[in-house]
Design a protein that fits this description.
This protein is mostly beta strands. Helices cover about 5% and strands about 25% of the residues. The chain has a domain at about 5-75. It has three helices and 55 strands. The strands form nine sheets. It has a 27-stranded mixed β-sheet, with no helix packed on it. Strands 7-9-11-13-15-17-19-21 form an eight-stranded parallel β-sheet, with no helix packed on it. The protein has a five-stranded parallel β-sheet with strand order 43-45-51-53-55, with no helix packed on it. The chain is globular. The N and C termini lie far apart (about 90 Å). The chain binds 2-acetamido-2-deoxy-beta-D-glucopyranose (12 copies). One 2-acetamido-2-deoxy-beta-D-glucopyranose binds next to loops. The site of one 2-acetamido-2-deoxy-beta-D-glucopyranose has 2 residues, from loops.
Length: about 775
């Protein structure tokens, strides 16, 4: 009501007191209409742009996004999605960001020479940047990021004496080399060219831009050496030259004392890292990863008080200075130090004096010998990554360490799984040579969420004490563990991944229990010596995505109890003693996301009904389906069972057990990040059973199926012509059945062979 009254009042006001106050100046209305006309406007579908409301029959001060002074001067234009108003005496700020404006920057902009700020970012604007900006004598900020501009750097822009910010980032078609920077004290504060195609060597004249503070030239194509004039810009705060092709040695003469972030990562810089790098007294973050630096002979006192983060990973550092004791303290105390993927042979001794270190990575070096006890001692240390080295022993550690993330995978550690890390949330001991698990291990896992022991040499029973933990991901695969699977293991309350595959486990699995509301998403106990039946309690796993029971001795009928688990993506029961029909799948509500079903090498029999296929939508989508996520983590495809092969050879390809779902684990700070392997791979393997009757023509609807193996059954009749629709099929094996009809290889009416890389088909005629 209030609003309505207000509106009526306003209306009266305008009628009673026309013109002067609110009406905009004719010239300005014309300019704005001209601007509107010149913009090739195709508004985003999700909002109606304010500019649509502009027309000559209304007062331009009433137009959306236009701000006027009381005497009708247009002082601000804000047409952005969430822009801010500016408020000056003539049009000073023009924010047209994210309006889906296309075409070249219109010449009508030249009508706004008093603009202070122009923001056209996030529009698909094309063509080169026009020269008329040189006439914008008051321009302070030009933002053209994330457009589709092409051409070269608009060097006229340096004629603008007031320009402070130029942002041309994310315009991949802007290229050529940078012009010489003019000789003056300059006004330019930030130069943002990230994600463009500018190339060539950098002009030394950048030193002329005396007050430059932010430089982001990352993700461009610059090469040559980095001019030392860069580093002596007196007000430089942030310098980002990452992801270019800079080479040569780093040389600093006079260094800027304000520089806080220096990012030179992903270049080809080499030689030694000059120790004078610590003369940047304001330095907080030093990123030099992914270059070819060979040494870092730091010594003597240094003055970096604020440095918290050093990344030297992926270089060729052979050693870090390890001189006399007094020099150890000369390395600045930092919070995060990344030395991964270098050529270090020892754990640098100076680390002993690092009392503030919270995150340390030495993975992928050539470190041998023992892990010193002192490395665990700091109370600040939160995350330690020593993976992928040749470490053989753990020095005895008498006190518990407070480290929360520990990655020791891929070393040669032996003996018993250590127990001095009861605070760790993330423990990766995989790919070592550990031989035994202490039976009370559970007492030391009270905080652990991720625990991997996979690919060691572990013998003995699985300790039931593990069931007292709150583990979410437990991987003990690929060891020699024996005995029965403790019933309680699958019932750990929040467990989502349990992998016991490739061990020597025996006994029955019939009585394996899961909890109500089970969180289990991946359950693997393939390749053991397990017998019994599919546990009835698995029906409670309503989130199950992967169930792999292959290569055991399970004697049961098809596990129809799983049929209402709509999340199932992978079901593998191959090489067991399953028998009978698979009729329970003849419903249209089963497993819409199924990608892999492997029933091979069992005693299944009977006809396969067409209806079965209707529900497996995942196999029917034509595009590469979405990535499978588990616990919010992505499952990535690595497996490809096929040797690259462009011909259509008739060699038999062993499908084997290749899609083994092995885990790779990456550490990101203390955050757990499980990268599981698998994704758009789709497979149906029913081979080596006694299925009979015709192959259902509905199978041809599996447009995203990659592997279909129906060999060694008793299928009869012809190959359905609908098979020609399976456009992503890479491997088809129908051999050793009782099929009749034409050989599709020699008559391509049935099959489209386009895109099929490996094609295996044998048709046996009786
Ligand atoms: C942007 O405009 C193009 C045509 O110029 C149109 O196809 C596209 O859908 C528009 N984008 C949005 C987000 O509306
Ligand atoms: C201008 O806008 C007004 C109000 O939105 C509308 O009534 C009028 O038809 C428009 N005129 C033209 C020429 O589009
Ligand atoms: C514009 O300036 C006027 C006068 O200085 C002020 O009252 C008004 O709040 C300003 N508007 C905005 C949106 O900043
Ligand atoms: C700048 O303005 C002058 C005078 O208005 C004009 O002659 C010149 O062509 C303009 N320069 C550019 C690059 O548009
Ligand atoms: C810029 O792109 C337009 C098309 O978008 C093309 O016509 C023009 O030739 C290009 N100019 C340059 C300098 O690459
Ligand atoms: C640059 O600045 C210095 C002092 O800050 C001044 O002496 C000199 O005249 C300036 N030069 C120009 C070209 O503005
Ligand atoms: C420093 O490390 C190098 C390489 O590991 C080694 O050869 C040298 O003996 C060490 N020097 C001292 C003083 O420990
Ligand atoms: C280490 O932690 C375990 C399990 O929390 C505890 O039983 C033990 O007393 C601790 N040892 C020391 C030395 O603090
Ligand atoms: C598996 O266990 C049996 C005894 O139960 C033993 O003979 C065999 O060596 C074990 N296999 C492996 C690979 O540990
Ligand atoms: C497999 O299970 C069957 C029946 O449960 C049993 O007779 C047979 O001995 C088992 N085979 C092996 C190798 O354990
Ligand atoms: C399942 O199929 C039957 C018969 O084809 C049909 O009546 C029913 O609506 C289908 N249900 C669903 C959920 O699609
Ligand atoms: C496939 O075989 C059928 C029957 O022999 C014939 O009519 C058809 O033309 C053949 N197609 C091709 C592409 O050879």
């Amino acid at each position: 009501m209030n609003t309505l009254l207000h509106y009526l009042f306003l209306l009266c006001f305008i009628i009673l007191l026309p013109a002067v106050h609110s009406q905009c100046i004719k010239d300005q209305q014309q300019s704005l209409l001209h601007l509107k006309k010149s913009l090739q406007f195709d508004p985003p579908s999700w909002r109606t742009p304010l500019i649509i409301s502009w027309n000559s029959s209304t007062d331009c001060c009433s137009w959306g996004g236009v701000t006027c002074t009381s005497n009708g001067h247009v002082v601000g234009l804000d047409l952005s999605f969430e822009g801010s108003f500016a408020n000056f005496s003539t049009p000073r700020v023009l924010d047209l960001s994210s309006n889906n404006i296309s075409g070249p920057i219109p010449g009508s902009f030249a009508n706004f020479p008093n603009l202070r700020e122009l923001d056209l970012s996030g529009n698909p604007i094309s063509d080169p940047i026009p020269g008329f900006f040189a006439n914008f004598s008051k321009l302070t900020s030009l933002s053209l990021s994330n457009c589709q501009l092409n051409g070269t750097f608009p060097k006229e822009i340096f004629q603008v004496p007031t320009l402070q910010t130029i942002d041309l980032s994310d315009n991949s078609k802007l290229g050529g080399s940078l012009p010489d920077f003019p000789e003056n004290n300059g006004s330019l504060l930030s130069l943002i060219l990230r994600g463009t195609n500018f190339s060539g060597s950098l002009p030394d004249s950048i030193g002329n831009l005396k007050i430059l503070s932010w430089i982001d030239l990352s993700y461009c194509n610059f090469y040559g050496s980095i001019p030392s004039s860069f580093f002596s810009l007196p007000f430089l705060l942030e310098l980002n030259l990452a992801h270019n092709q800079f080479s040569g040695e780093l040389v600093f003469s006079n260094v800027s004392s304000d520089l806080s972030t220096l990012d030179l990562s992903f270049n080809h810089l080499d030689g030694q890292i000059p120790v004078s790098i610590f003369n940047f007294r304001g330095l907080e973050s030093l990123q030099l990863s992914s270059n070819n630096f060979s040494g870092f002979p730091f010594n003597g006192p240094q003055q970096v008080k604020y440095l918290t983060n050093i990344d030297l990973s992926y270089n060729s550092l052979l050693s870090l200075y390890n001189g006399t004791d007094s020099s150890y303290s000369s390395f600045p105390e930092v919070i995060s130090l990344n030395l991964a993927a270098n050529k270090l042979r020892t754990i640098p001794y100076f680390l002993r004096n690092q009392s503030t270190l919270s995150s340390l990575s030495l993975s992928e070096n050539h470190i041998q010998g023992k892990i010193p006890h002192w490395i665990w001692s700091s109370n600040q240390l939160d995350s330690l990554n020593l993976s992928c080295n040749s470490l053989a022993t753990l020095e005895p550690h008498l006190y518990n360490s407070t480290v929360k993330t520990v990655d020791l995978h891929s070393n040669q550690l032996q003996g018993q799984i250590p127990t001095f890390l009861p605070f760790a949330k993330y423990l990766d001991y995989s790919r070592n040579n550990f031989r035994s698990i202490p039976s009370n291990i559970g007492d030391f896992l009270t905080n652990t969420l991720f625990f991997s022991l996979s690919s060691n040499n572990l013998h003995g029973l699985i300790p039931t004490s593990i069931c007292n933990s709150q583990i979410q991901i437990l991987d003990m695969s690929n060891n020699s563990l024996s005995g029965m699977i403790p019933q309680c293991l699958t019932a750990i309350r929040d467990i989502s991944v349990l992998n016991l595959a490739r061990n020597n486990l025996t006994g029955t699995i019939s009585n394996v229990e899961v909890s109500e509301n089970s969180s289990l998403e991946i359950l693997e106990f393939a390749t053991n010596r397990l017998g019994g039946q599919v546990p009835k309690s698995l029906a409670k796993c309503t989130k199950l995505k992967v169930l792999n029971m292959g290569n055991n001795n399970i004697t049961d009928t098809f596990p129809c109890l799983l049929k209402s688990i709509s999340t199932l993506r992978v079901l593998v029961v191959r090489s067991n003693n399953f028998y009978g029909g698979i009729e329970c799948l003849n419903t249209n509500v089963t497993w819409p996301g199924l990608q892999i079903i492997d029933l091979a090498h069992n005693n299944f029999r009977g006809e396969i009904q067409g209806i079965l296929w209707r529900t497996w939508q995942k196999m029917m989508v034509t595009e590469d389906g979405s990535l499978l996520t588990i616990n919010g983590h992505y499952l990535r495809r690595i497996f490809n069972p096929f040797v690259p092969n462009d011909g259509y050879g008739l060699e038999e390809v062993s499908l084997g057990f290749g899609y083994d779902i092995s885990t790779t684990v990456t550490n990101k700070g203390s955050e757990m990040n499980l990268v599981k392997i698998l994704s758009i791979f789709t497979l149906i393997d029913f081979s080596c059973n006694n299925f009979s009757g015709p192959i259902p023509k509905e199978m041809g609807e599996f447009k995203s199926l990659r592997v279909l193996n129906l060999s060694k059954n008793a299928f009869t009749g012809e190959i359905p012509s609908s098979f020609g629709n399976m456009s992503t099929l890479e491997c088809l094996d129908l051999s050793l059945n009782k099929l009749s009809g034409r050989n599709p290889i020699t008559n391509s009416t049935i099959f489209s062979l386009n895109g099929i890389r490996t094609f295996v088909i044998f048709i046996t005629r009786d």
